[in-house]
Design a protein that fits this description.
With 254 residues, this protein is of the alpha/beta class. Strands 3-5-4-6-7-8-9 form a seven-stranded mixed sheet, with helices on both faces. The protein has a two-stranded antiparallel ribbon with strand order 1-2.
């Protein structure tokens, strides 16, 4: 689809009120594939690949705000009213900016593995280092590390296909698009607390080293009435590592 003057890959499935699923760094619309069938029974499910990720080419400098602006343009173009919005990892910062800058477009907000914004200084440098690495060596230089460090041991042992799917998502990224996405995350700014009047679901893995439980807890406490869960034996790729629980949470929340 042409969105905000650029070409974005967007999948739309089902009928009913709109649900927008936003992936994180290294992800694509396929991150949410396990949830689509159940959600599409009662909702119109919209899954974009953010600019520079998956099948959406990169055309310029990326930022968290540029992602949020693209999502706002997409929702406006679809003209379906306020959406139920889900974000994962870097996508949690994007959708928080979307909700803050375009509150009329968001009716519910779900955060999976929320990450801090801004990142701590060491985290910012790590993203710049990763960008340089993939520009020099390609996606294979980071794919195994992402799979190993960001999934739970139980996932790699008991659900190796889920771990393999994480690796494949990363391997399929365009190195330059991924590098610019890393730099966008490194430059993330604080979107402020989630509006207490906005229904909020916040879920993360008990073994999530990227979206650590204490980050979710801080966001939930600042909100005041969030629904929260911390999934045992789950790392950072929640929708793939614990698909049934994530599906159940989203269906119930929406």
């Amino acid at each position: 689809m042409q969105v905000n003057g650029k070409e974005l890959a967007v999948e739309i499935t089902g009928e009913g009120p709109l649900v927008l699923l936003v992936h994180g760094l290294g992800g694509t619309s396929n991150f949410y594939q396990p949830q689509v069938a159940a959600l599409a029974e009662r909702f119109t499910v919209v899954r974009p690949d953010l600019e520079g990720s998956g099948r959406s080419p990169v055309s310029g400098t990326l930022s968290i705000q540029s992602y949020a602006d693209d999502l706002a343009a997409l929702l406006t173009q679809l003209d379906a009213g306020a959406a139920r919005v889900v974000g994962h990892s870097m996508g949690t910062v994007v959708v928080r900016h979307l909700a803050a800058s375009h509150p009329e477009l968001v009716s519910h907000l779900a955060l999976l593995g929320a990450v801090p914004a801004p990142l701590p200084e060491a985290g910012q440098q790590a993203q710049h280092d990763r960008a340089a690495k993939v520009r020099a060596e390609g996606m294979a230089a980071v794919a195994d590390a992402v799979m190993t460090n960001a999934t739970a041991e139980a996932t790699r042992r008991d659900h190796p296909a889920a771990a393999a799917a994480v690796r494949e998502l990363v391997m399929r990224q365009d190195p330059e698009g991924y590098a610019r996405s890393c730099e966008a995350l490194a430059g993330a700014t604080d979107p402020g607390p989630v509006d207490p009047s906005l229904p909020l679901l916040a879920v993360t893995g008990a073994e999530d080293k990227v979206g650590a439980p204490e980050i979710t807890q801080r966001i939930a406490e600042a909100h005041g009435s969030a629904v929260t869960d911390y999934l045992d034996d789950c790392g950072h790729w929640h929708a793939l590592e614990r698909p049934e629980e994530i599906t159940a949470h989203l269906v119930k929340f929406f």
